[in-house]
Design brief:
The complex is a heterodimer of chains A (114) and B (114). Chain A is mainly beta. Chain A is built from no helices and eleven strands. The model of chain A has no long low-confidence stretch (mean pLDDT 93). The chains are: A mainly beta (114), B mainly beta (114).
């Protein structure tokens, strides 16, 4: 069984400030972890993924995340927020031997203030 | 990268009619496809998993007779919402996996039943 907890359903930052979106996971087998972004009425866009290689993962649009097994965390960061980063962000976990089947967190709405 | 096309992007139908949503993997063979449902301001809920040539596996609480899933080929899966009612209005998203990597998501379909 696997689960994801995203801490903070809403996060607000100023433009240019650090973005930190938190994700903790639970998995009985080695996990694959993902961060997705969703804009209104659109599908999911993959930001980055962890698949048991490097623990620090760099993604698109300046985002990165670090897999910390001891903390069962996979927090998403971006050094400097841009207005276009305002969206819904989902953390997801899947099992390495069934990577396509994902369990999603509840999502975090990121607001970027000018 | 792998592309998954979902059609239509939006559909409005009358209560009591059926609606078919298509999910196609354009540049890879999808041995497994997943169908999710997303309510407004909520996360993605897995409805069912389909493997090519096999019956779909439905998650607990999902009515298989209402949500008919067919995965007839390695590039196409369809979701048919039968006898649709307003409570079936939602955002439906498919994803497809070759089995070796994570799943890739379609753009989603906004279903409105009037």
């Amino acid at each position: 069984a696997q689960s994801v907890t995203q801490l903070g359903s809403h996060v607000s930052v100023s433009e240019g400030a650090l973005v930190l979106l938190r994700c903790n996971y639970s998995s009985s087998v080695p996990p694959y972890l993902f961060w997705y972004v969703q804009y209104p009425n659109q599908g999911l866009q993959l930001l980055l993924k962890y698949t048991s290689a490097a623990t620090l993962v760099k993604g698109i649009n300046g985002f990165e995340a670090e897999f910390k097994k001891s903390e069962t965390s996979f927090h998403l960061t971006k050094p400097s927020a841009h207005m276009s980063d305002a969206a819904e962000y989902f953390c997801a976990v899947s099992e390495w031997n069934n990577a396509g089947k994902s369990t999603f967190g509840d999502g975090t709405t990121l607001t970027v203030k000018p | 990268g792998a592309v998954v096309s979902q059609h239509p992007s939006r559909v409005i139908c009358k209560s009591g009619t059926s609606v078919k949503i298509e999910c196609r993997s354009l540049d890879f063979q999808a041995t497994t496809m997943f169908w999710y449902r997303q309510f407004p301001k909520q996360s993605l809920m897995l409805m069912a998993t389909s493997n090519e040539g096999s019956k779909a596996t439905y998650e607990q609480g999902v009515e298989k007779d209402k949500f008919l899933i067919n995965h007839a080929s390695l590039t196409l899966s369809t979701l048919t919402v039968t006898s649709a009612h307003p409570e079936d209005s939602s955002f439906y998203i498919c994803s497809a996996s070759s089995g070796y990597t994570e799943a890739f998501f379609g753009q989603g379909t906004r279903l409105t039943v009037v």
